[in-house]
Amino acid sequence: MMNTPIKLEEYFFPVVQVVADPSAEEEDQGFKYKAEVSLSHNEEEDLYQVAVEISSIPEGKDQKQHYTINLVVIGLFRVASDFPNIGKLLYVNGSSILYGAAREFLITITSRGPWEALRLPTHSFLEQYESEAGKDEETKKQKSSKGGKSGKQKGSGSNKKSKPVPKGTASPKKKTN
Fold this sequence. Notes:
The chain is an alpha+beta fold.
């Protein structure tokens, strides 16, 4: 059996906000969203934290959506120390694992609402990673031409600062018997 370089220890949803709009019409089915990723590393326990925030984006002032959402899912991962690009692995694979969990969670929640269940479309975190990596390279070039310094976060695919996360998320929960 082949060992995987990434192992999910646990995941949880510290932020769950789903609001159904009763004034939306049946034809108001457009849904746009953004998925933001942040990474951090607890060196003491050698745990990586991946946070994915999924938020709906209004299409326009007059356009209504059946649901407005803001959801944060946090996963704690262990990664093989000899893996060549840990930041990319966590950003692409870790985020994809958490996005799938969030997608199912939203289907469950919205299936009990007044509108049809909300099914998030598939999402490519590889394209998002490459897009952000390209922006980071451009930022580095601009800073170096101005004499500024730039650096990457350890284990991160970008130099974007991680968002603060709820206290106590740096290690798995202790189970009691």
